[in-house]
From TrEMBL, chain A:
Pfam families: CbtA. The chain crosses the membrane at residues 68-92, 104-124, 136-155, 162-178, 198-221. This is Cobalt transporter subunit CbtA (Proposed). Keywords: Membrane, Transmembrane, Transmembrane helix. NCBIfam families: CbtA.
From TrEMBL, chain B:
It comes from Ruegeria denitrificans. The chain crosses the membrane at residues 12-31. Keywords: Membrane, Transmembrane, Transmembrane helix. It holds the Pfam family CbtB. This is Cobalt transporter subunit CbtB (Proposed).
Amino acid sequence: MFSRILTSALFAGAAAGLIAALLQLVFVQPVLLHAELYESGELVHFGAEAVSAHPELPGMFSELTRDALSVIFTMLTYTGYALLMIALMSVAEGQGHTIDGRTGVLWGLAGFIAFHLAPGFTLAPEVPGVAAADVYARQVWWFATVGAALVALWLIAFGGNLISYVIAAVLLMAPHLIGAPEPDVFTGPVPTEIGALFAARAFGIGLVAWVLVGTFAGYFWQSEGKRVEATA
Amino acid sequence: MATQTQTVSASRAGILPVMFAVVLGLGIITLTGHVQAAALHDAAHDVRHATGFPCH
């Protein structure tokens, strides 16, 4: 059982993580590098003169070590997500629900909502250099919000009665009504245009990556099950 | 009677691997996304931002 979870999670996480990492390098990294020019003070927003929106950025793959580390850590992160997802998938399958590549898309959407959209609804994906509250306080809020969203989505998917939908709605809204830790003052030197583009890109790639994790997880869970059965 | 005992032990044997996978998955996400040790933070910096984790 555990080897089936582990094997399918490794395949699903590594495959989805690799694609996510490459997409991030193409679509998110240039925005991040652009923001860092403001974070380091190399460019200054609201100076005497307007600043070009298209500065010379270091070319893609110019910093190989940095990009390679990003690829490794993205693959690791999505492997962690795949482990969580497949563990829960095995529970759902035990209760008689179908788990395969197609239903995996729904699991992926749910994962995106729980781990990206729910916390990001208030703590939007941060471009480097933004003002933010204490990192530990934000991490506590992040974990609490993700946990609440996971329970809520499970209730929506498998609860099947009005009370579970009501509890789910409360769990989804509560962290945002309570509010996330916010900075006392705004000191971010990065133009809002860059910050908004960064958040949009981070959400977009997150959605793609999660749908991939879900469908790969469902697919590999099935094919691993068949392989184990065949050799047993 | 015999089938009942079997079902109970099967579901008990089923929950341990699930728990272990959850703990392992959470551990990986905590390491890559949240631990603030300088070396880990620097290595995972771009990923933490791009994945929407609180970074620094």
